[in-house]
């Protein structure tokens, strides 16, 4: 704060603080608090709001555990509430998206930061950024077109003679979530690449050379020198890709198979089909809370602290 | 604020404003409101259909001299709340809910019946104000609800590839040879009605809409059967574009879709067919407020929307179907040929009107839809 005042003077600093305060309070805290408050109230006809039945309860949260369905996991059939199942699948496949995005991004980030020549770097970054110029809705829809039954992918493969019958890619070849995972990785991979790129860039190249001079094989150099240094970037990239994937409504709605239900779609159903905003709010709260818990657990597991990411 | 206070305030306010109005142009202000009946009708209807104010009301005023005071509301819950206020405060004559809602409105003491002698019941197409819809428009023989426009959800089929039974049935949606584009909750209702038509349900499907225990029993059966038949579903739709893409991009041969989907695909080898069990249909119409002041004008207004021209204009404003006989000449010829191709008098008489679905029912329905989607 003192730095800020010294640099910009009292007036400008005051405006900054007010604007940030307004943004935090009016656009983040109050709306979330309103949802939190609504989530404990029952869904009632307009005329009964504020009436005797409008009392706080945990009923909306209890709905999360209603409606068990069969779920077979490794050959064992379990009864799991349908929304819990959607939640678990959403978390699992979001984590999968995160891992795939990491595997794709790390080598590329290392190449950009340490190997690519400085002259070609702007061109390479530009090429990576071009997809971001198109809105996410259009990118998802483009993938929908590619993956459809009568789409260009099937036509190309059939023309090449690799397949003789069109494949329903959208329904999934390996799992019911194939299409969602492909498109999410495509949409969010840059959110992984850029933080890793920045953090590898700040690594002194001498350290890599020193490791090589001392006879470390290439994989040990990465394991012992590059990755520990890039850890905050990797962690923030993972958190971003995970939260963006788990919270995406657009991608699963556009490309999802008929057997995949993403948790935000469940929330959307409560708000839009059932018109039950209160239960929708409760589900949003559950989702927010459990995702935060999951992320914190993962950060613990990989021994990254939040302050590392903030740097 | 207690009621006593509020009357006091209101009275004081009225006195004050009357005095003020007296000084200004009192006669002009008082006369239009004070006369029991005048050349106007106060109508509360749906927001978002600008053609009503642009074309339909002026045409009505030109034909009858009655002016329409239109208040737009986003949904029926808001209309209901507004009507409850108007029961004390006045100011509403006619409202436009859907057929499944007026029963609850009437139970709240909001409505009075129409005088049939002042309407023209012969104007309506068969099946819309008579038959099962007619029964659901009446209570104790009195007519509380008259239709204004309607729409359907039925089979859109690829005429070249779909395997249809003869006559076409809702069961064709579950034929494993027909790739299908569906929306979960109406598919479950279609399964229920198909099972009922084959006599495979322990009790009438309609029971589920009034009794939640029956709903669980019936929807469990429909869900189990629908999950068994789920293999042919290639895409879900929730709006027009997805439904369209399900056919064109994902090669569905059959779907349970809105009439507009079939209309948009009519030149690409698809047909819109009413199943033998009867197409799903929705219905909205007019009700008369208990304390309506402009009763004569309200009847004129309602009657206007049953005339060939009036019903065509009303349907066009909502992009839906008209309720009046002879309205087709006022619609575009392509649209009227399309509807006539799907709905002959028999199919019209068989329409299955969506029953009332309470908030509790819809929440449960969404749960079944989620189970069906996740299976």
From TrEMBL, chain A:
Which keywords annotate this record?
Cell membrane, Membrane, Transmembrane, Transmembrane helix, Transport
Membrane-spanning segments: 12-34, 91-112, 179-197, 234-255, 281-302
Tell me the ranges covered by the ABC transmembrane type-1 domain, including all copies: 87-298
Q: Which organism is it from?
A: Rhodobacter calidifons
Q: Where in the cell is it found?
A: Cell membrane
Tell me yes or no: is Metal-binding among this UniProt entry's keywords. Answer: no
- Membrane topology category: Multi-pass membrane protein
Q: What is this protein called?
A: ABC transporter permease
Annotated Pfam families: BPD_transp_1 (PF00528)
From TrEMBL, chain B:
Please state the span of the N-terminal signal peptide per the UniProt entry. Answer: 1-36
Keyword Signal in the entry? The reply is yes
Keyword presence, Amino-acid biosynthesis: no
The organism's taxonomy opens as:
Bacteria, Pseudomonadati, Pseudomonadota, Alphaproteobacteria, Rhodobacterales
Protein origin, superkingdom:
Bacteria
UniProt name for this protein: Extracellular solute-binding protein
Gene3D superfamilies named in the record: Periplasmic binding protein-like II
Q: Which residues form a coiled coil?
A: none
Q: Which Pfam families match?
A: SBP_bac_8 (PF13416)
List the source organism.
Rhodobacter calidifons
Query: Which keywords describe this protein according to UniProt?
Result: Signal
């Amino acid at each position: 704060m003192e730095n800020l005042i010294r640099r910009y003077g009292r007036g400008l600093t005051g405006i900054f603080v007010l604007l940030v305060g307004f943004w935090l309070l009016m656009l983040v805290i109050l709306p979330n608090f309103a949802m939190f408050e609504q989530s404990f109230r029952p869904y009632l006809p307009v005329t009964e709001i504020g009436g005797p039945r409008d009392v706080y309860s945990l009923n909306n949260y209890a709905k999360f555990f209603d409606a068990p369905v069969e779920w077979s996991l490794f050959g064992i059939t379990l009864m799991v509430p349908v929304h819990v199942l959607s939640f678990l699948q959403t978390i699992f496949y979001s984590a999968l998206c995160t891992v795939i995005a990491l595997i794709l991004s790390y080598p590329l980030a290392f190449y950009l930061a340490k190997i690519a020549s400085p002259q070609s770097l702007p061109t390479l970054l530009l090429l990576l950024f071009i997809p971001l110029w198109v809105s996410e809705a259009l990118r998802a829809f483009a993938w929908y077109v590619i993956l459809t039954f009568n789409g260009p992918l099937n036509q190309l493969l059939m023309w090449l003679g690799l397949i003789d019958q069109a494949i329903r890619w959208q329904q999934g070849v390996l799992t019911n979530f194939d299409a969602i995972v492909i498109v999410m990785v495509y949409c969010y991979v840059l959110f992984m690449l850029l933080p890793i790129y920045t953090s590898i860039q700040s690594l002194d190249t001498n350290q890599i050379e020193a490791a090589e001079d001392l006879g470390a094989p290439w994989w040990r150099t990465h394991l012992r020198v590059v990755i520990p240094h890039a850890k905050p970037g990797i962690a923030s990239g993972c958190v971003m890709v995970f939260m963006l994937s788990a919270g995406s409504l657009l991608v699963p709605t556009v490309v999802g198979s008929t057997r995949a239900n993403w948790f935000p779609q469940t929330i959307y159903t409560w708000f839009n089909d059932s018109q039950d905003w209160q239960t929708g709010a409760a589900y949003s709260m559950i989702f927010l809370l459990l995702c935060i818990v999951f992320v914190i657990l993962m950060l613990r597991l990989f021994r990254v602290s939040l302050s590392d990411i903030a740097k | 604020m207690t009621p006593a206070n509020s009357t006091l305030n209101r009275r004081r306010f009225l006195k004050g404003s009357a005095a003020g109005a007296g000084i200004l142009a009192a006669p002009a202000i008082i006369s239009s409101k004070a006369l029991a009946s005048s050349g106007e009708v106060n109508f509360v209807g749906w927001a978002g259909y600008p053609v009503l104010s642009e074309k339909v009301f002026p045409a009505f005023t030109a034909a009858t001299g009655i002016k329409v005071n239109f208040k737009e509301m986003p949904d029926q819950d808001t209309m209901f709340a507004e009507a409850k206020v108007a029961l004390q405060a006045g100011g509403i004559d006619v409202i436009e809910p859907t057929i499944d809602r007026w029963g609850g409105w009437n139970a709240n003491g909001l409505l009075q019946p129409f005088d049939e002698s002042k309407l023209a019941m012969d104007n309506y197409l068969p099946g819309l104000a008579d038959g099962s819809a007619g029964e659901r428009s009446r209570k104790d023989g009195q007519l509380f609800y008259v239709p204004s426009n309607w729409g359907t959800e039925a089979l859109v089929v690829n005429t070249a590839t779909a395997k249809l039974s003869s006559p076409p049935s809702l069961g064709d949606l579950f034929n494993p040879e027909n790739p299908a584009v569906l929306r979960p909750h109406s598919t479950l209702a279609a399964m229920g009605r198909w099972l009922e038509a084959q006599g495979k349900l322990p009790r009438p499907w309609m029971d589920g809409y009034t009794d939640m225990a029956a709903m669980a029993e019936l929807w469990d059966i429909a869900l189990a059967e629908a999950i068994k038949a789920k293999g042919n579903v290639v895409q879900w739709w929730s709006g027009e574009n997805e439904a369209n893409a399900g056919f064109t991009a994902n090669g569905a041969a059959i779907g349970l879709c809105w009439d507009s989907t079939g209309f948009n695909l009519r030149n690409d080898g698809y047909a819109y067919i009413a199943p033998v069990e009867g197409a799903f249909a929705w219905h909205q119409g007019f009700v008369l407020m208990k304390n309506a002041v402009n009763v004569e004008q309200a009847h004129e207004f309602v009657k206007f929307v049953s005339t060939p021209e009036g019903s065509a204009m009303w349907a066009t404003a909502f992009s839906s179907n008209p309720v009046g006989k002879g309205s087709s000449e006022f619609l575009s010829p392509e649209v009227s040929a399309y509807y006539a191709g799907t709905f002959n008098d028999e199919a019209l008489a068989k329409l299955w009107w969506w029953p009332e679905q309470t908030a509790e029912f819809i929440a449960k329905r969404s749960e079944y839809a989620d189970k069906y989607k996740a299976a």
